[in-house]
Amino acid sequence: MKRNKYGIIWEKAPDIKKKSLHIINILKMSWIDKNNLYFIRSQHSSARARARIWGLPKVWQMSLREKPAYIIEVISEKFDNLTDEDKNKVLIHELSHIPKNFSGSLLPHIRKKGKRNFYDRVNSFFNQLKIVNR
To answer: Phi and psi at residue 54, in whole multiples of 5°?
Structure first.
């Protein structure tokens, strides 16, 4: 792919979709509506992240008459060279931002006192996946 005049190049990522759906099934993330989950690979992004998740906020849902949806974007230069284990951990991290009500909003890294830590949740999911994949 060649860089376009706008800089970032986005393309569908069926390999990421397959890997993510496998993770969702194994970890029994039943609250995730797989029909409203999309996967994109970007190139030439200046973001520091390896991947990120985009939610469709309520105001957009209402205005466009759409259901809640999420896009997981992997940043090719930073994601594609990771080990399979690290790719799984990154995808679990992004999927963990999806709340149980699948509303289009995103769960933050830091939650209110007394709630389970976001990173504990990610690590718990990752450990479950490692046990199943043995």
So the answer is: -120, 130
d(CA 109, CA 96): 10
The DSSP string of 63-74 is HHT----EEEEE
C-alpha to C-alpha distance for 66 and 9, rounded to whole angstroms: 25
pTM score, whole prediction: 0.88
The distance from CA 32 to its chain's CA centroid, rounded to whole angstroms, is 11
Q: What is the mean pLDDT of residues 33-50?
A: 95
For residue 7, give both structure tokens: 């800089």
Cβ atoms of residues 51 and 74 within 8 Å: yes
Distance CA 17, CA 70 (A): 12
Domains belonging to the chain, first-starting first, are 9-132 (3.30.2010.10)
CA-CA distance, 30 to 19, in Å (whole number)?
16
